[in-house]
Design goal:
heterotrimer, A alpha+beta, B mainly alpha, C mainly alpha, B: mainly alpha, C: mainly alpha, 12 helices, elongated, disordered N terminus
Chain lengths: ~525, ~325, ~290
């Protein structure tokens, strides 16, 4: 999530949902003139400013947690790591793997000699336990959808794990890359003293203040810094000041205005690929009149996403109506510019649906506290529709209350939201909480949609797969269950040292290369 | 006297009981479900129910309150719904920074404000008295988060003298601890001083108009001596009450300062807990704040009783 | 200050008050005057709409079209400041009314009558004060709806103890004084004595508290808006504007300075006016 301004951990709390945590961002560049404080350097500490706290230390839970990558990327490891340059899987806990000819069996050979931070050896049984734990409905892991196709997991020996799939899953390695492996023996203390296999050992979490991990010297690629401390600095100007006076070596997830100000202050800014995140309006498609697609289409025409990208995001955002970025091979050509800002078209569509100046559309836009750009989105849509004679209100809600009204007991017309596009896997997009057929936040699932998503996800033939995804995009662009507004990179501010951070596309980052 | 104090202690306990009870029911009734916070978008009715049961939130409110009350009396404040740390540990960790911040700010404010208020009262008819009072008033007219930010911009970013954020415990580095507190304490003191100065000044002026001051003046006592011997002690009595009254302001001000300067104190802990519906932590913070409040006011009553014989006589 | 005037007893030569204030604290009269005009006539004075966005004119400095520039969504800063003044005036009124009426009544009765009543009231006041304002505000806003009134009711509740404690301590100090004894000797009832003898004697301290807490109300409105509680968008308020301006400090410092000066000016004016009024009362209206 790219919001800023927060008050402790409340804000940002939910975004970046299912897939990779927020983290992803590009390497951080740039000479950054200021010398760190004595304190930061003495212990070899790498101090990172984050705007809000994490929710839990359990790497398989962390729902809605913008900064969950902190623990997931350092204390724990998955079987594979998705390399941001090649987008292929690199070995991590798995040394090698083999996918059977029918695509229904995946065999992982594990690295030998790996130990948990408490000294116990890591074995295939841990992997089996971890995968079953994610699948366990009683645990309620948000990563469970990544493993829906996995019908069986077993350890054939201490170093071998075999996954059986119900159907072919072209992106199975991307899915496996976000499943962190946990230790069964210490599962009881996972929320207070997590034990992992990663390059850093957990040291301390002072809720609301900081999270600290220290280098695990026995790790096969031991980190170069002594420790990483994520410090919670809720105020964006205070984070900028922290970069300038050397208190912080890196700031994660900056908003457009912070990026502009950092640049003015001589702080280098690095960004990920321009489509790691999208902002959107989610619509309650079961509630009248939003069950009428003409109303939804009208809303899409009523929002000036070009001006929004240019002004509120200072040009850092790329306006689009299609959540699938043009960089993906499955992208429907020329679809980004569909539904241009056109108040007359919006008026006409609303009139068709029965809403005119005399019978105005009444609607409430929810927006979660602490996300300034989302609030701007809500205000701009409100202003645009009210000028057409409609009656739109905006309600800024405390995040827990917003979660309640949006997700838990849906009671909303439309809400602002943002979403991490995750690994570049076309299937993920349509299985995300925004669009997954079985259950999605727009409460939208027209007949045939589920079959189409399943068919596209299992299709091995490239051309056929692309055709199926084109069909899916045409469907959502016509039905408009949600209004996508833009694609965004994730922004990091940092020192020279911070450049070495490797940001994985699936929300798992590699901190071992950073040296002070 | 002893009976009076005993009454105050019992009263304080009743206050604690009421405050924590109110806090319990108010936060529990507020919308927002901690299970939803834990589960987020993976929430399904079954999972929410499971977590709700796990957290003991499926019980009727009065029973939950009874359990909390019993456990608290037994010295068990429970564990956080979010971090699963014992509430007592969280409170212990957060209390010290807050107490250090609040106490230091209060001392700084009192040390500056009382002489200032007395001098302004004594010289209330001089030409510079009014502009000086107005100048001091600016301190209470600018929002604390704004003052803090300006201090950061000036001293951390521009002059590079002091750290912009973070708290260094004195056990780790005494000098670092002092450095990390200069800006927060300044911010909070700037906020506390004006109202204190004003109160001291107003009180001192009314004392200066008392008959015995006139008498002293008529006897030829020097103005400075009158100020020290007659005005200061009498002003102090009311000012002490006022300082006790400032405690709430102090705590609320500390919340904002803690947020701006990233100090891991009670204010931040409490605010985050409320926003997460982390009920055990909310209760712990309220209990702690209320206990501190009751204790300090008890002390003030005691001081008051010692200074003012009219109260002692009761 | 119409609201302060309501808590002020009829002063014999009230016509002299304004003259005294202008002589004593012209800055206060000027600032509060501007504030009152803005609060009362703001909607008519505003050159532009308070809510109309215009992204092509975002974050501009002062110009002939936008006298005080525009905000990040291209809304006119002057118009929004005028709207904020109205919101601040409402905040002031709610807080001083709730705190002043309930707090003074409680403190007066408790201090004047003593006994069991004092014990009960002291407890109630302590309960109120032992409760951090921020928590009260969050709970009230969560239970009902985020709105200015709800947030300010919380701040008003928090102001009750201020009034109560001051009026109580003054009442305790006064109740055994000669003139009270004399009134008692003449057969006046306790309540009557409190009303006619004790209350007028505590107006000074109460006004100090009222001006202080009222100005605090404006400050609280700013802090609560900073936390997202209070006025709902797109309505303007000092707090939300200040928070917005702060985020763009290095991009459009003029925005931050204008809003900062406006907010501080209003609060400073209220504080100084409170001082001046208390001076006026101290001199017995001379």
């Amino acid at each position: 999530m790219n919001g800023r301004e927060g008050w402790g951990r409340m804000n940002r709390a939910q975004f970046l949902r299912l897939f990779g945590g927020a983290a992803a961002a590009a390497a951080v560049a740039g000479p950054f003139g200021f010398v760190g404080t004595a304190r930061a350097q003495a212990g070899g500490d790498f101090v990172i400013g984050i705007s809000s706290d994490i929710n839990t230390l359990d790497p398989q839970m962390s729902p809605n947690d913008v900064f969950r990558h902190t623990i997931r990327s350092t204390v724990f490891e998955a079987l594979v790591f998705i390399n941001p340059d090649t987008l292929q899987a690199d070995p991590l806990l798995a040394d090698s793997w083999e996918i059977s000819a029918d695509g229904l069996t995946v065999t992982f050979k594990l690295k030998s000699g790996v130990t948990w931070h408490n000294g116990a050896p890591f074995t295939a049984a841990d992997v089996v336990y971890s995968i079953k734990r994610v699948q366990d409905a009683a645990v309620g892991s948000p990563f469970a959808p990544q493993l829906v196709a996995v019908t069986n997991v077993e350890a054939t020996d201490d170093q071998t794990v075999v996954l059986t799939l119900a159907n072919t899953v072209p992106g199975i390695l991307s899915n496996i890359a976000v499943i962190q492996i946990v230790n069964e023996a210490t599962i009881g203390t996972i929320t207070t003293a997590p034990v992992g296999t990663g390059p850093f050992k957990f040291v301390n979490w002072a809720p609301g203040d900081h999270i600290r991990v220290e280098a695990y010297a026995e790790h096969r690629s031991a980190p170069k810094v002594g420790a990483i401390e994520w410090r919670i600095v809720p105020d964006s100007q205070a984070r900028l000041a922290g970069m300038q006076d050397g208190t912080l070596q890196m700031v994660m997830l900056a908003e457009g205005k912070d990026v502009v100000q950092a640049q003015a202050a001589g702080i280098e800014v690095i960004q990920t690929k321009p489509y790691n995140l999208y902002e959107n309006f989610n619509i309650n498609t079961t509630r009248a009149p939003f069950n009428d697609k003409r109303v939804r289409q009208a809303l899409a025409h009523a929002f000036d996403r070009e001006s929004y990208a240019k002004t509120v995001w200072f040009g850092f955002a790329r306006a689009t109506i299609n959540p699938v970025p043009p960089e993906m091979e499955t992208y429907l050509p020329d679809s980004a510019s569909l539904y241009p800002y056109d108040p007359d078209k919006a008026t006409a569509l609303l009139a068709e649906a029965g809403f005119t100046k005399d019978n105005p559309l009444k609607m409430e836009i929810l927006t979660p506290q602490g996300f300034d750009t989302l609030k701007s989105m809500a205000l701009l849509l409100q202003d645009s529709l009210n000028r057409l004679g409609h009656n739109v209100t905006v309600r800024e809600l405390e995040v827990t209350v917003w979660l309640d009204r949006f997700l838990t007991n849906p009671d909303f017309d439309i809400t602002t939201d943002n979403f991490n596009t995750g690994p570049e896997d076309p299937a993920s997009m349509f299985n995300s909480p925004n669009l997954a057929p079985a259950t999605n936040v727009n409460l939208w699932n027209p007949p045939g949609y589920a079959e189409l998503v399943a068919q596209a996800g299992a299709e091995i033939d490239r051309d056929k797969r692309i055709a199926l995804y084109h069909q899916l995009q045409q469907l959502i662009l016509d039905e408009m269950p949600q209004i996508t507004v833009n694609h965004l990179p994730l922004f990091f501010l940092g020192t020279e040292a911070a450049k070495a951070l490797v940001i994985g596309p699936s929300g798992i980052d590699d901190y071992t290369k950073i040296a002070l | 006297m002893i009976r009076y104090l005993l009454g105050r202690v019992v009263g304080g306990l009743i206050t604690l009981f009421c405050v924590t009870g109110l806090a319990f029911f108010a936060t529990a009734l507020a919308p927002g479900n901690p299970a939803a916070v834990l589960l987020g978008n993976m929430a399904t009715p079954e999972r929410i129910e499971a977590i709700t049961r796990q957290l003991g939130l499926d019980q009727p409110l009065p029973i939950r309150y009874g359990i909390w009350l019993r456990e608290t009396l037994l010295g068990n404040l429970g564990t956080s719904n979010v971090s699963f740390k014992p509430v007592a540990d969280l409170l212990a960790a957060a209390a010290f920074p807050t107490i250090q911040l609040a106490l230091t700010s209060l001392i700084v404010a009192v040390v500056i404000a009382i002489p200032l208020g007395l001098v302004l009262a004594q010289n209330r008819n001089r030409w510079w008295s009014r502009p000086a009072s107005s100048l001091i008033t600016i301190g209470i007219s600018v929002p604390g988060f704004w003052v803090g930010l300006m201090l950061i911009v000036l001293f951390s970013v521009t002059l590079r003298l002091l750290p912009s954020a973070g708290y260094v415990p004195p056990t780790k580095d005494v000098l670092g601890n002092i450095r990390s507190l200069v800006l927060p304490v300044t911010t909070l003191a700037i906020y506390l001083i004006p109202s204190l100065v004003r109160f001291v000044r107003v009180t001192a002026i009314s004392v200066l108009r008392e008959d015995y001051v006139d008498t002293a003046r008529a006897k030829g006592t020097a103005p400075a001596a009158i100020l020290l011997r007659h005005v200061a002690p009498n002003t102090l009595v009311t000012t002490i009450t006022y300082i006790g009254l400032q405690l709430g302001v102090l705590i609320s001000g500390a919340v904002v300062v803690e947020l701006i300067f990233s100090i891991p104190g009670l204010g931040r802990l409490g605010l985050n807990a409320v926003l997460n519906r982390d009920y055990p932590v909310v209760q712990g913070v309220v209990l702690m704040a209320a206990t501190g409040y009751v204790a300090v006011n008890l002390l003030i009553d005691l001081t008051y009783a010692l200074i003012d014989p009219r109260v002692r006589a009761r | 200050m119409s609201d302060l005037a309501t808590t002020t007893p009829p002063v014999r030569r009230s016509s002299g008050l304004l003259g005294f204030l202008i002589r004593r604290s012209p800055l206060a009269v000027l600032l509060v005057g501007i504030f009152l005009v803005a609060a009362i006539f703001g909607p008519w004075l505003a050159p532009h709409s308070m809510t109309d966005t215009n992204l092509s004119a975002a974050l501009q400095g002062p110009s002939s079209t936008y006298w005080l520039g525009t905000d990040p969504l291209g809304r006119d800063v002057l118009s929004r400041l005028l709207g904020s003044a109205q919101v601040a005036a409402q905040a002031f009124l709610i807080v001083v009314l709730i705190g002043g009426v309930f707090g003074t009544a409680l403190g007066l009765l408790a201090g004047g009558l003593g006994g069991l009543l004092d014990l009960v009231v002291s407890r109630v006041v302590e309960v109120l004060q032992g409760f951090p304002t921020i928590l009260v505000a969050i709970v009230i806003v969560a239970l009902f709806d985020p709105s200015l009134t709800n947030a300010m009711i919380a701040v008003g509740l928090a102001a009750i103890p201020d009034f109560a404690r001051v009026s109580r301590s003054v009442a305790i100090q006064l109740r055994d004084r000669e003139f009270i004894q004399a009134a008692r000797g003449l057969g006046a009832g306790e309540i009557r004595i409190l009303w006619s003898e004790v209350l007028p004697n505590m107006i000074g301290p109460l006004i100090v508290i009222a001006s202080f807490d009222g100005a605090q109300a404006v400050l609280w409105e700013a802090s609560l808006s900073f936390l997202g509680m209070g006025v709902q968008p797109p309505a303007p308020s000092f707090g939300s504007m200040l928070r917005e301006a702060q985020g763009y400090l290095a991009i459009q410092p003029v925005f931050a300075i204008i809003v900062g000066v406006a907010v501080s000016g209003v609060i400073l004016g209220l504080n100084l006016l409170g001082d001046a009024i208390s001076d006026y009362l101290d001199r017995g209206g001379k």
